[in-house]
Amino acid sequence: MEPPRPPFARPGQSDPYLAALAERVLVYDGATGTNLQLAHLGPDDFGGAAFEGCNEILTVTRPDAIETLHRSFLDVGVDVIETDSFGSFSVVLAEYGIPERAHELGLASAQIARRVADEYTSPGSPKFVAGSIGPGTKFPTLGQITYDELSASYEELAYALLEGGVDLLLVETMFDLLSGKAAINACHRAMARHGRIVPIQAQVTIELTGRMLPGTEIGAAITSLSNLGIDVLGLNCATGPVEMYEPLRTLSTTCALPLSCLPNAGLPSVVDGAMHYDLTPEGLAEHLARFVSDFGVAAVGGCCGTTPAHLKAVVDAVGGSRPGPRQPIVEPSVASIYTAVPYQQDRSVLLVGERTNANGSKKFREAMLSGDWDTCVAIGREQIAEGAHVLDVCVDYTGADGVSDMTDLMSRLATQSSVPIMVDTTETAVARSALTWLGGKALLNSVNLEEGDGPGTRLDGFLTLAAEFGAAVVATCIDEEGQARTADWKVRAARAITDLAVERYGLDAHDIFIDPLALPLSTGMEESRRDGFETIEAIRRIKAEIPGVRTILGLSNISFGLNAAARQALNSVYLAECAEAGLDAAIVHASKIIPLARIDEKVREVCRDLIYDRRREGYDPLQELLSLFEGVTTTSSNASKLDELPLRDRLRRRIIDGVRTGLETDLDAALAEGLAALDIVNDVLLDGMKEVGELFASGEMQLPFVLQSAETMKTAVAHLEPHMEKSDQGGRGKVVLATVKGDVHDIGKNLVDIILTNNGYEVINLGIKVGINEMIAAVEEHQADALGMSGLLVKSTLIMRENLEIMAERGLAHVPVLLGGAALTRTYVERDLRAAYPGRVFYGRDAFEGLRVLDRLGEIRRSGEDDPTFGRELSEKNVSRRFREESAPSPDAPRRAPSVQTDNPLFTPPFIGSRVAKGIALDEIAGYLNQTALFRNQWGYRPEEGEDDAAFKERVGIVLREQLALAKSEDLLVPQVVWGHFPAAADGQDLVIFTDDEHTTERARFHFPRQAQDPYLCIADFFRPVDSPDKDYASFMLVTMGQRVSERTRELFEENRYSDYLMLHGLGVEMAEALAELWHRRIREELGFAGEDGPSLTGLFRQQYRGGRYSWGYPACPDLTDNATVADLLEASRIGVEVSEGFQLHPEQTTDAIICHHPQAKYFIA
Fold first, then answer.
1. Is residue 1050 over pLDDT 70?
2. pLDDT tens digit string along 33-87?
C-alpha cells in the first residue's frame, strides 16, 4: 500500500482538546521518572535487571504502578495525563534488546491512561490523555541515525498510541529540530493510516545556554516547526521555569499557535547520592501563573522533579483560568539549524548566494566531482561572509550521482552553514535527500507548470515535499506553453501555481517565492529586448495582485554573455530597479553587487536604457554598454604587480600589504641568492614594518591592515628562524608587558605585544591582573630593557602610581616604564607620574608610539649617549585628569539636589527580585550594535577618501556579517542576562535597597558621589528619599556574552592570528554593550514607559529615552566594589559571572548597570 502523502488532515477547533485549550488553561501532570523512583521499584518490577530503568516496560510488568502514578496526579485536579511511552519506540527499546515490543508497550501505555482518565472524567470536566513521544538518544542532524529510520520508529509508536485512545500526540523534549520533524511527520502518517485525527503538541528543550543542544535559537525552532501541521508549540524539561522566561517571551510575541510550558522543578543537584530538585510547589505555581498571565501560555504542567504536590499548587493557582492576551507578530522566515532569517530584510533584498552551484561555479563543481567537500563548504562560507542571507545549493551535473552528492554535502552544511539552505535541483529524489538532513526551514528551488500539475510531475513531487518538511518554495513563471515573456503571462503563471500550492498542498502564500525570470539582455535579438522591463512590471503586478507571495530572481541571467565588468554593472543596476518595483529576494554573488553611487553615471544611464529598451535612431544601449566596457576588468591583480617588483622590494611590499601567498617562495629565493636570514629580517622585512608604522601614524593605514602586516611578518620570521644562528635571534631588546593588578582588560597590551614582537623585540607578556612583585621579578629574570603597564580602569591609574613608587623605593629607577590605557592622559603621565618616579616614564598612546620610544631607548643604550631629559621631563600643561577621584563633599552641598523633582511619576515593576534570560537571538542583539564604536574604536577602520558615513558602514558591514556568521557557526557568543527590580529609597548620597515594599529590612546599600558645585547631582537623588511615603524602585541588570568568546580570543592571540583576534574581541565587547542597550529597552517596556523612546537607534545611544543607565567605573558611580554588590543582589553566578579580586566582572565581555526611571537621570560627572 502506498504510504500516506501530505498535506495531511488536521483537527478543527471543535476538537475537544483544542476547544478546551481555547477556553481555559489546561494543567498537565508532573514527572514520570521522578515519581516512579519514589516508588522504590526494583529489578523484579521491571522484569529483570536487564530492563531496570526502562520505565516504559512497567506498563506490562507493573501496570498497577503506572495506574497509581496517573491517579496521584488526577487526584489533585490536573486536566491532562501523559502516557508512560516516552521511550516506547524501537530505536530506544533496541538499547534494551526489545525493539519488537514497541507497539505492545505503546498500546499498553495508552490503554492504562485512557482507562484511568475516563474514571475521573465528569460533565464539564474532561480529562485528556496525551500520547508521549520522546526524542530518543540518537542525533539525526549529526548522522547518528537517518531521518527515515527515526521517523519510521516514531510512526510505530504513534499508531499504537492512537489505537489506545489518546486525545493528542505529544512530541516532547525535542533537542534536535530534525528529530522533531521526523516525529511530527510520523504522527501525521500514523493518523492518516489509522483514520483518527488528533492534535499534535510539539515541545522543544532549551538548555542552560538558552538554546537547543546544537545551538538552535528558539526563533529558529518556531520558524522550522510551526508550519508542519502542529497545533500547540511549547517548552519542557532541561531547566526550571526561571530559565524559560526569555524563550517564552519570544514564543508569546512571535508564534501564532497556542503555547505550552512544562518546566522541571528547578535545576538538579545530587543530594545523598540521589537527584534532587529544589523548586518548591509554591515556587513552580508562582512562575507558571506568570507564564499564563504575562505570556498567554495555555497548557502548563511539570517535568523532571515535579510531584503531585507541585501540580496541586499549580491547579490551585491557574486551574480553569484564562490565558493572558497575546498579539503575536509572525515574521515569515526561513531558518538554519541555528537561527531564523526573515524574508524581509531591513536594508536590502534577501540575498541568496549562488556560488555553491555545480552549474554556476567551476571551482565548486570540480571540488564536488573530486569529493573535496571541505572546499565546497568553504565556498559556502565565503558566500556567507560576503553577505549572503541564504545559500543556494545545487549538485545537479550530468553523470554525477545527485542523491549521493547531496547527501555528502548536506550532512556537512546542515551544521556548518549558519544561514538557511535553498535546495536547488530538478530531481525530487535529490531534493528529498537534502531535506532529510536539514532541521531548519529550507527553500525548494524550483517548481513550475511545464509538465502540468498531475500526479508524478515535478510540481507534484516538490510541493508534496514542501508540505511534508515545512519548506518554502520558488516557483518559476513557466507553464505548458513555455517561459513566460510578458508581464501578463508571468502574472497568469504565478497565479496558477500559487493557487495550486495553497489550495491543493496547503502551503502558506507567504512561503511562495515567484520567479518571474531574469532573461538575458545581451543577445541583441528583437524578441529579447523587452525581457528586462517585462520582468520588472511583473514583479510590481505580482506583489499587488497576488496577496502574500514574494518575488525572487536569478539575477545573473540578465547579463549572461557580457564581460565580468559589464555584468557587475548591469546586475547592480537591474537589482536596484527590481528592488524599487518590490523584489524580495535575489540569487546572486553578493560581493559582485556594488552600490549605484560607485557606478559611473553614464554607465548607470546606459544600463537603464538597455533594461527599458530605450533605443533610438543611432543609439543602441546594448552596443553602447559593450563599447563602454571593452577591455575593462573588474579588478587589477595585486599579485601580478608584486611579481613585477625586484625580489627585495617584493618582500618588503608583502609586509606592507600583508600578502602571504607566495611569501615563503620569495624568502627561499632570497636565501638562495645568498642573503643571510638575519639581513633579510633587519634590512628588508623590518623596513617594511617601519613603513607600516609610518602609514598608521599618518592615518593612511588602518589597524586591521596593520595586523595583517604583523601576521605576514610573523610568518616570515618563523620561516627564516631555522636559517639563523641562535645568537642572531636575540632581537632588538626585551620588554615585559602586563595589565596591572585588578584589571582584566588586555586588548591594548596585546596589540603592543603584536607590534613590538613583529618589529624585532622579545616580549614577555605576563597577562592580566599582574602585581608589581611579579612584574619586577620578570624584569630581573629576563634582564628586560623596559617595563610596560596597561590598564583600562580609573583605579588602574592609581595602581600604576603605586607601582612606580614601589619601584623607586627598591632602587629600580634604571628601568624605563611605558604606561598605556584609556583612563590615562599624556599630561597625567608626563606630569604627575613622572614626578613620582626618578626613572624614565612614557605615555603610550598606541603601540607604534611605544615602538618609537623603545627604538630611541635602544639608540641611547647602544651609543652610550646621555639624554637625561628623555622620559623624565615634566609636562608643564595644566590639564585636568579625564577622571577624578571623589572629592570631599562641599560644606555648602545640599543633602539632595534641589533641581531634581520629587513628584515625578513612579512605576511599579512587574516583579520584585531577579530573573535570568538566556538564548537571546544574536541578530536581535546585533540590531542594537553601535557600529561607529565597533568599526572605528574597536576595529580601527576609518572612512576612505570621499566616503560618507553610510558608505563607510556599508563597506565595513560586510566584515561585521562575516564575523557574526563565524561567531554563530562556532557558537562563540552566548548572551545571558540577569536583571531585577527592587524597592529602593535615597538616604543622602546612599541608595538603600530593601527586601520588601515596607522597607523592613535593608538588603544592600550603594554610595554615590555628589557634585561639588551646582547642580550638586548624585545618582541617589533620582529616587524618593527614605522618609517619603511613596514606593519607589531601582532596576539593575548584568549582561554577558559568555566565557567562550574570551577563550577563543586568547587562542587566536596565541596562534598569532592577530586580525581575527582583533575582530572577535571587538565584536564580543560591542555585542555585550548592544545586549545592555537591548535589555535596557526591555526594562523600559516592563516598567511601561518605552513609548517615550526616541525614534532611532542613534537616539538611544544619545539617551533619548526616559531615565538613565549608569555602569560602575564611570564618574557618577566610580566605586568598582559595587560590582560585587550588584552581582550578589542579582545572583550573577547563575549566568557564570564572577567578580575578581579587583572587583572586575568576569568574563571580560560583561557589563552591569543601575537603571533609573527618573526623567532627569542623564549622564553627568560627579
1. yes
2. 889 988 889 999 999 999 998 999 999 999 999 999 999 999 999 999 999 999 9
- Please list, in sequence order, all residues whose beta carbon lies within 8 angstroms of the beta carbon of residue 399, skipping any fewer than 6 positions away: none
pLDDT at 271: 67
Amino acid at 804: L
- Please count the other Cβ atoms lying within 10 Å of the Cβ belonging to residue 298: 26
Q: How far is CA 214 from CA 391, 859, 968, in A?
A: 20, 57, 11
Q: Are residues 421 and 451 in contact, defined by beta-carbon separation less than 8 angstroms?
A: no
What is the Cβ-side half-sphere exposure of residue 439, based on CA atoms within 13 angstroms?
Answer: 34
Q: What is the mean pLDDT of the chain?
A: 91
In contact, 29 and 73? CB cutoff 8 Å: yes
Q: How far is CA 949 from CA 432, 868, 941, 942, 955, in A?
A: 46, 46, 12, 10, 10
Query: Of 193, 196, 136, 124, whose CA–CA distance to 166 is shortest?
Result: 196
Tell me the pLDDT band of 890, cut-offs 50, 70 and 90.
Answer: low
In the numeric block, which cell numbers belong to residue 984? Answer: 529602593
* Model confidence band, residue 638 (pLDDT cutoffs 50, 70, 90): very low
Which tens digits make up the pLDDT trace of 345-381? 877 899 999 999 998 899 999 999 999 999 999 999 8
Q: Burial letters for 505-535: b for 16+ Cβ neighbours within 10 Å, e otherwise?
A: bbbbebbbbbbbbbbbbbeeeeebbbbbbbb
Q: Which phi and psi (to 5°) does residue 1053 adopt?
A: -65, -45
Residues 6+ apart with CB under 8 A from 1095: none
For residue 590, what pLDDT is reported? 80
- Asked whether the bond before 868 is cis by omega within 30 degrees of 0, the reply is no
Q: Is the Cβ–Cβ distance between 228 and 181 less than 8 Å? A: yes
φ and ψ at residue 1064, rounded to 5 degrees: -70, -40
Q: Is 1039 helix (H, G, I), strand (E, B) or coil?
A: strand
Helices (H), 560-685: 564-581, 601-611, 621-628, 638-643, 647-657, 663-672, 677-679
Q: Are 626 and 566 in contact (CB under 8 A)?
A: yes
Determine the Cα–Cα distance for residues 1064 and 460; give it in Å rounded to an integer.
47
pLDDT, position 272: 67
Torsion of CA 468, 469, 475, 478, to 10 degrees: -50
Tell me the residue ranges of DSSP E strands in 925-1052: 976-987, 990-994, 1002-1007, 1033-1040
Residues 458, 459, 461, 467, Cα dihedral to 10°: 160
One-letter amino acid for residue 801 of the chain:
R
In this structure, the number of other CB atoms found within 10 A of the CB of residue 702 comes to 19
Percentage above 90 pLDDT, the chain = 67
- Residue 978: HSE in the Cβ half-sphere, 13 Å Cα cutoff: 18
Nearest to 599 by CA among 630, 561, 620, 568: 568
